[in-house]
Write a structure and sequence with these properties.
Length: 120
């Protein structure tokens, strides 16, 4: 399971999740028949309902979960991240262990930079 965190929720919806789907489709386009002809001549992938369903099915089949959390980097944000992870592990023991992914951030505040580096 993966926690994906960013300050902006729109980045998670419009960049992070689509990048996961695109990477999955590129990696599996030779092995999954439903992905063999889905890329346009320009190499673009349209996120159709069947593509999204295939991605969700793949995640479920492989016991993978994606969790999204947005907010400013702070001690409280890091605590929320870890406590949510612990609660999920206790409530859903069948889930695979949680990995935390941190993105490259443009950080303008020294306070936020400290919280970001403490999370690593």
């Amino acid at each position: 399971s993966f926690f994906l965190a960013d300050y902006n929720p729109s980045v998670l919806h419009l960049v992070t999740l689509p990048n996961f789907i695109l990477t999955w489709a590129l990696y599996h386009r030779q092995s999954l028949t439903e992905l063999q002809d889905v890329f346009s001549l320009e190499g673009e992938l349209e996120l159709t309902p069947s593509i999204l369903e295939g991605f969700e099915t793949y995640l479920c089949t492989h016991g993978m979960n994606l969790w999204f959390l947005s907010g400013g980097w702070s001690a409280e944000f890091i605590q929320l991240l870890y406590s949510t992870s612990s609660h999920l592990a206790a409530a859903l023991p069948e889930l695979s262990p949680v990995s935390i992914l941190l993105g490259a951030e443009t950080i303008y505040s020294p306070f936020a930079l400290q919280a970001f580096t403490e999370a690593v």
